TrEMBL record:
<dbReference type="InterPro" id="IPR003786">
    <property type="entry name" value="FdhD"/>
</dbReference>
<dbReference type="GO" id="GO:0097163">
    <property type="term" value="F:sulfur carrier activity"/>
</dbReference>
<dbReference type="GO" id="GO:0006777">
    <property type="term" value="P:Mo-molybdopterin cofactor biosynthetic process"/>
</dbReference>
<protein>
    <recommendedName>
        <fullName>Sulfur carrier protein FdhD</fullName>
    </recommendedName>
</protein>
<dbReference type="GO" id="GO:0016783">
    <property type="term" value="F:sulfurtransferase activity"/>
</dbReference>
<feature type="binding site">
    <location>
        <begin position="245"/>
        <end position="250"/>
    </location>
    <ligand>
        <name>Mo-bis(molybdopterin guanine dinucleotide)</name>
    </ligand>
</feature>
<dbReference type="GO" id="GO:0005737">
    <property type="term" value="C:cytoplasm"/>
</dbReference>
<keyword id="KW-0501">Molybdenum cofactor biosynthesis</keyword>
<keyword id="KW-0963">Cytoplasm</keyword>
<feature type="active site" description="Cysteine persulfide intermediate">
    <location>
        <position position="107"/>
    </location>
</feature>
<comment type="function">
    <text>Required for formate dehydrogenase (FDH) activity. Acts as a sulfur carrier protein that transfers sulfur from IscS to the molybdenum cofactor prior to its insertion into FDH.</text>
</comment>
<comment type="similarity">
    <text>Belongs to the FdhD family.</text>
</comment>
<dbReference type="InterPro" id="IPR016193">
    <property type="entry name" value="Cytidine_deaminase-like"/>
</dbReference>
<dbReference type="Pfam" id="PF02634">
    <property type="entry name" value="FdhD-NarQ"/>
</dbReference>
Length: 263
C-alpha cells in the first residue's frame, strides 16, 4: 500500500485574535520514478499509496500497455521512490527518452507529454449505461463520505469508479490525474471492464480530465464542480455524459443527457 499519505506536524495557528501552538495533518508529496525496460520513463509526484495501480494506470493512459498480459513484471521500491517495469514487448521509436519527464502534482501532466498520444488512445464511448437521478446523487454522496484523508488535510483530489450499484472503488492523491490512474490500474489488475462504469470526481472537469476519462474508457463522468467549454465539446464528440455541479440534490447535464432517465 505504500507510505502514509498524510503526516502530522506542529504548527502555529492564528484564531480569535491569538497565536497558539497546535497540530495539523498535511498531505505527503512523494516522487516516484518509473523505468520501463530499463529506460527512465517519467517521475510522477504523487501520494505514496496504491503505487502499483498508479504505474499501471499511467502506462495504460499513455498507450504503453493496454492490458495486464503485456506486463512481464513490476517492482515497486517505495523506500527509494522507484518503479521497475518489464514489458513483454519493446516500446519502439514512438517514445523519446532523451528528455526526462517530471509529472508534477499540480496538474498531473506535462502538457507536451500529455497531448502526444491523445488522438490514438482516447476512446469514443460505446457504453450502454443508463442512470436514474438518484444514482447520480448517491454516487457523489459516496465519494464525499469516503474522503476521510481529504477532510483531515484538505490537500488531496478524490475520485471513484462505480457501476452505480454494488461496485464502488475510491482513491485519493495530491495529483488529480494520479487518482484516476490509480482507479484505472485497479481495474486493469483485476480484469474489471470499465465501459459501463462511471467516474466520480471531486474537481473541475477540464479537457485533460475528460480526455483521461476517455482513455480509461468510461461513458459517464460526474463532478461536484464545473466543466470547461472544451471539456464539454470533447464529451459531446467522444459520446461521454458529463455531469457537473452535483450539489444539494441538484446537478447539470452538459452532454449526452439521454443516459439519465426519470422514473
Amino acid at each position: 500500500m505504500g507510505k502514509d499519505v498524510s503526516k502530522e506536524q506542529i504548527i502555529v495557528k492564528y484564531e480569535n485574535g491569538k497565536l497558539s501552538q497546535t497540530t495539523d495533518q498535511y498531505a505527503t508529496e512523494f516522487p516516484l520514478t518509473i523505468r520501463v525496460n530499463g529506460n527512465e520513463f517519467a517521475t510522477i509526484i504523487c501520494s505514496p499509496n496504491h503505487l502499483e495501480e498508479l504505474v499501471l494506470g499511467f502506462l495504460a493512459s499513455e498507450g504503453v500497455i493496454s492490458k495486464i498480459d503485456e506486463l512481464e513484471s513490476i517492482q515497486i521500491d517505495d523506500s527509494k521512490g522507484g518503479a521497475h517495469v518489464e514489458l513483454t514487448h519493446q516500446l519502439g521509436n514512438f517514445f523519446d527518452y532523451s528528455t526526462k519527464r517530471m509529472i508534477a502534482s499540480c496538474c498531473g501532466k506535462n502538457r507536451e507529454f500529455y497531448f502526444q498520444n491523445d488522438a490514438v488512445i482516447a476512446k469514443t464511448s460505446m457504453t450502454h449505461i443508463e442512470l436514474l437521478p438518484n444514482q447520480v446523487l448517491n454516487m457523489m454522496t459516496q465519494l464525499q463520505g469516503a474522503s476521510n484523508i481529504f477532510k483531515q488535510t484538505g490537500g488531496l483530489h478524490n475520485a471513484a469508479i462505480s457501476d452505480c450499484n454494488d461496485f464502488f472503488e475510491h482513491r485519493q492523491d495530491i495529483g488529480r490525474h494520479n487518482a484516476l490512474d490509480k482507479l484505472y490500474g485497479y481495474c486493469i489488475q483485476r480484469h474489471i471492464p470499465v465501459r459501463d462504469k462511471a467516474l466520480i470526481f471531486s474537481g473541475r472537469i477540464s479537457s485533460e480530465i475528460l480526455i483521461k476519462a476517455a482513455k480509461i474508457g468510461v461513458g459517464v463522468i460526474l463532478s461536484k464542480s464545473a466543466p470547461t467549454s472544451l471539456a464539454v465539446k470533447l464529451a459531446q464528440d467522444l459520446n461521454i455524459t458529463a455531469i457537473g455541479f452535483i450539489r444539494n440534490r441538484k446537478f447539470n447535464i452538459y452532454s449526452h443527457p439521454e443516459r439519465i432517465k426519470n422514473l
